[in-house]
Amino acid sequence: MTVTPRVVVLVSGSGSNLQALMNADLEMQIVLVVSNRKAAFALERAAAAVIATLYAPLKPYTDAGRSRAEYDADLAQKINLLEPDLIVLAGWMHVFTPAFLERVRVPVINLHPALPGQFPGSHAIEDAYQAWLEGEITASGCMVHHVTPELDAGEAIVTRVVPFIAGDTLEIFAERLHAAEHELIVTATRSVLEIFKQPA
Ligand code: GRF
Prior knowledge:
7-stranded mixed sheet, 7 helices, globular, 200 residues, binds 5-O-phosphono-beta-D-ribofuranosylamine, alpha/beta
């Protein structure tokens, strides 16, 4: 009898990638959705699916002069209480300090809208589009990678190239890239969850 893997998903925005995971036919149970932004529509998507949510703002820590490492350590401990098998960062716009990664004892994977080694940070799509306009690249893409203390730099699990097409506006390209992300996050999560199907 295999136990269904427990997954915690961290979000900060609209949650379209969370929705892709929720809609997918994956052998997993999303046991908690965490957002550092109260207005994140992702929280409404989780609530609509009767998935537990946690709003974890950083501001109370900074207002109290407490460090990001303390925020990260506290968040890791709260997540550990759910005994997850996998943590998925799906549009999570917060750079973890080692304090988080040292405390969670399961794989942490992150979706990033760029290819390995290209355009780290929170403006990846815009930066890639600008590079295309300047003739430096003909394609960008997205990846899901293992999370390490270095920003957007962990080993890639799966990548998807998304070419630019003549006449692309930033919005048209972003839409094409987000569609690729929605497929990629499911493929990557399925791939990582495979390890839980191995006979003990
Ligand atoms: C995605 O493009 C993700 O790669 C980036 O932020 C966006 C999140 O979208 N980090 P959503 O909140 O999943 O709709």
